[in-house]
Input
Amino acid sequence: MRIENEYLSQLMERVVRRNPAEPEFHQAVREVLASLSPVVDRHPEYIEEGVMDCLVEPERIIKFRVPWEDDQGKVHVNRGFRVQFNSAIGPYKGGLRFHPSVNEGIIKFLGFEQTFKNSLTGLPIGGGKGGADFDPKGRSDAEVMRFCQSFMTELSKHIGPDTDVPAGDIGVGSREIGYLFGQYKRLSNEFTGALTGKGLAYGGSLARTEATGYGLCYFADNMLRSAGRSFEGATVVVSGSGNVAIYACEKATDFGAKVVAMSDSGGYVYDPDGIDLALVKELKEVRRARISAYVDSRPRAEYHAGCAGIWQIPCHIALPCATQNELDEGAARALVANGCYAVVEGANMPCTPQATEVLQGAGVLYAPSKAANAGGVAVSALEMSQNSMRFYWDFAEVDEHLRTIMRDLYNNVAAAAERYGRPGDLAAGANIAGFLKVADAMLAYGLV
Ligand code: NDP
Output
């Protein structure tokens, strides 16, 4: 991906030099800087006033030890992170990821992306991200609780409802948020909305669980309609079977599509009759089982070990909702060859740069994650509003806000792409529109 502006190209070289061995962070920064050349050409003040240099440097990185004891009394030590990337337009906001692959570079890439995504929602939230290289899979509830309490004992010193408000991400669902919030409340001696994605019994918002997946389909619906297409009658492949995937599948089905495949990190299921989502919810949300168990109850469905093959299944719309770089160039070529006309990113950065190039080159409608999956953080911000008001909206009201936010977001991104000479390029539009608001706030503050 070429960065045309000379200054931004040198800045990219400095980012690589100063952040060695962080390929995901480099990938995310390069993708954004490549889109911003026309913006800085028109507005050199963003370079002259140091905004571009500040933008690629997190405001603060917190890295800490997380010791905890398993059920056998053995001590484990994990590493925790919180990257407070940019607070120009509001308190840091972004999820916590518990997964063995977590490292500083991955959290930086996610925090950087989050800054633009949060800006695109139109709500007053800055960008942050955190997590730990802890794997909750196979751990008892008591072990997960002890880990979460130890993690929060340190994290609580750095967060708060007006400072930094974490939420869930991979490996951090309602169980983990419960343990984390309980410990935060105990340590701070305050009942404040310092986390989102909370349970409904203790300050959560209706529709937060559904928000990322539903929001993804609302965004996709706007994009498809503007191209004279829709979900109605379309065949859809969804990767993952976690929070985002499940509710993307639910809304796509509501919109008249047939979802024929879902996956987890072990493999994927193909169900020619359409995915039985109640069964997937039972397996994943209740039994914490593997997706391979799906075929025990659905004899016409097939299970295939390994994730990559899911993109070989013919579909009209692909919704990658598992993890970063899960859809590579070969997968993109297979999608194009099979007649796929839209790829909408539910996970953060699921397409490799080469895959994006193939898709855009073939005229596939492509919705980048920082725009398409912003519904989750948008409803998190609505959860913060409700916590501050000490008053809760019903499901329909939150869902209506979400629909409006995703419609406006789509229009804003499409308009920015048009304004800067890249009509139809939603990736460029998202980077530009997300950047402008943050950059203007940074300009107003001077050097801080
Ligand atoms: P979950 O933990 O609920 O689900 C993740 C799903 O992806 C699981 O099916 C998991 O399989 C699979 N997966 C995870 N890692 C890998 C991997 N390395 N290879 C293949 N499959 C993998 O997470 P979420 O649904 O919350 O998050 C999914 C994506 O969406 C992430 O990129 C996240 O950053 C992004 N996102 C999430 C938001 C939210 O509100 N939750 C908001 C915006 C973005 P297994 O169970 O086997 O690990």
